[in-house]
């Protein structure tokens, strides 16, 4: 079905060239995919899924439409084989393995239960799918999905999933509170305070697991020490952070993204409860309002996440290092739209474009969403992330000349230089 050279090219060009497992490996994709490929016996359906994954990625990365179309054709065949197996109720581990590979190709699909997980690779697949689903539907989770995400577990990845899930649920509650209920809102404000403490405690955990002092920042690259696809912007965010592995970097990225989403919720529930300003939003020195402080803290923490991206795009990291960067750039574009910080917004858009060039179609859709968001942020609230699938209407894509002309005319009308975009 597929030569070993093609799959080896996929592994070499998607994953970091030097892979060293560690206690802070957030993404198990390398272990899962390489483990599936090394299985001594594979069904034809699974062979097709492996071929589809390698060919579709390499086709997108190298702009090889012939290889991309071939990968998608094999993908469709594998879907048909999977459908037949499910129709016959011929359940097997290969069905789960095939779905795990499908999850690397497009929108993440999830199993309905984690019962009867019988091997480490199966356990890794379920945990990985939980995180990927949570991020793909962040702050827009259905009740069955929340129940699934909250199934008992342990470890750093489990703790991170619970923190992000609870932040997501609070954001949904804030969005549904059309009629203020001071008592209920005060209770939710208290939940925010407890959730902030959990964020801080988890930060201490990953600091200790990394061998750092609990309240320090990660180490930083010196000037000129790192060469990366996304150059460090010391004047915008500070020096780029240095990590021991992509998994370690991704823990920090996702936690700081969650911090960035949390503080606008403080302001929302404070407003609904008509309560005193919580300590985290008080600014006794400069006298900024709680809203200004919420925006400031959201931008501060997402700025820390941006300082992780140069590490993820340095030579040898390849495309896999940018998967979680999509969500960081997504939140950064949103945060800097509300603070009206054009330079940092543009940097986040360029980071998103780098994700597009790395082969992630989701980044292309999000980049279009946030171009529109910049010009009309008042149409969206600052405490809940927009759901990209729900707001994208059929229209020319951002690379289409007609769409680009529309965007650039809006920018020029506001006095922006469009030559560098």
Structure characterization notes:
The chain has 421 residues and is an all-alpha fold. 62% of the residues lie in helices and 0% in strands. It has 17 helices and no strands. It has helices at 4-14, 29-37, 44-61, 65-87, 93-105, 120-136, 143-149, 156-176, 182-210, 246-273, 290-306, 309-312, 325-338, 342-357, 361-375, 388-391, 401-413. Helix 8 runs parallel beside helix 10 (246-273) and helix 9 (182-210) packs antiparallel against helix 10. The longest helix is centred in the middle third of the chain and has 29 residues, at 182-210. The protein is globular and about 65 Å long. The chain starts with a helix and ends in an 8-residue tail after the last helix.
Secondary structure category: mainly alpha
How far apart, in Å, are the first and last alpha carbons?
A: 42 Å
Q: Tally of extended strands?
A: 0
- How large a portion of the residues is in β-strands, by DSSP E? under 5%
Shape: globular
Helix percent reads 55-70%
Radius of gyration: 22 Å
Main pleated-sheet profile: none
Low-confidence stretches: 107-120, 390-404, 414-421
**What is the helix tally?**
17
- The topology string of helices and strands comes to HHHHHHHHHHHHHHHHH
Please state the average pLDDT score. Answer: 78
């Amino acid at each position: 079905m597929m030569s070993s050279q093609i799959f080896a090219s996929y592994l070499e060009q998607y994953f970091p060239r030097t892979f060293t497992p560690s206690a802070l490996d957030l993404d198990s994709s390398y272990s899962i995919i390489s483990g599936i490929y090394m299985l001594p016996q594979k069904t034809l359906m699974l062979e097709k899924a492996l071929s589809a994954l390698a060919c579709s990625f390499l086709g997108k990365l190298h702009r090889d439409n012939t290889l991309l179309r071939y990968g998608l054709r094999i993908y469709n065949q594998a879907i048909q084989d999977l459908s037949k197996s499910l129709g016959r109720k011929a359940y097997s581990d290969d069905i789960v393995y095939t779905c795990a590979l499908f999850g690397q190709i497009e929108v993440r699909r999830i199993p309905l239960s984690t019962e009867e997980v019988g091997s480490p690779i199966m356990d890794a697949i379920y945990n990985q799918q939980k995180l990927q689903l949570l991020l793909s539907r962040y702050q827009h989770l259905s009740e069955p999905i929340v129940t699934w995400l909250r199934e008992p577990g342990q470890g750093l990845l489990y703790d991170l999933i619970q923190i992000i899930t609870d932040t997501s649920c609070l954001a949904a509650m804030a969005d549904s509170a059309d009629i203020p209920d001071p008592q209920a809102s005060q209770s939710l404000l208290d939940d925010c305070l407890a959730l902030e403490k959990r964020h801080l405690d988890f930060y201490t955990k990953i600091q200790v697991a990394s061998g750092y002092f609990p309240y320090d920042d990660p180490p930083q690259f010196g000037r000129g020490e790192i060469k990366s696809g996304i150059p460090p912007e010391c004047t915008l965010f500070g020096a780029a952070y240095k990590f021991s592995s992509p998994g370690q970097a991704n823990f920090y990225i996702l936690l700081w993204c969650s911090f960035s989403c949390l503080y606008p919720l403080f302001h929302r529930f404070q407003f609904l409860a008509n309560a005193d300003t919580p300590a985290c939003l008080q600014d006794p020195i400069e006298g900024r309002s709680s809203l200004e402080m919420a925006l400031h803290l959201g931008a501060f923490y997402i700025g820390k996440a941006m300082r992780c991206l140069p590490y993820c795009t340095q030579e040898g990291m390849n495309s896999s290092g940018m998967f979680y960067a999509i969500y960081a750039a997504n939140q950064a574009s949103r945060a800097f739209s509300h603070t009206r910080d054009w330079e940092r917004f543009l940097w986040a858009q360029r980071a998103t474009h780098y994700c597009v060039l790395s082969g992630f179609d989701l980044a292309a859709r999000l980049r279009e969403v946030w171009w529109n968001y910049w010009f009309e942020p008042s149409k969206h609230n600052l405490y809940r992330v927009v759901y990209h699938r729900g707001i994208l209407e059929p229209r020319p894509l951002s690379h289409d000349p007609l769409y680009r002309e529309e965007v650039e005319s809006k920018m020029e009308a506001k006095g922006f230089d469009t030559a560098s975009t």
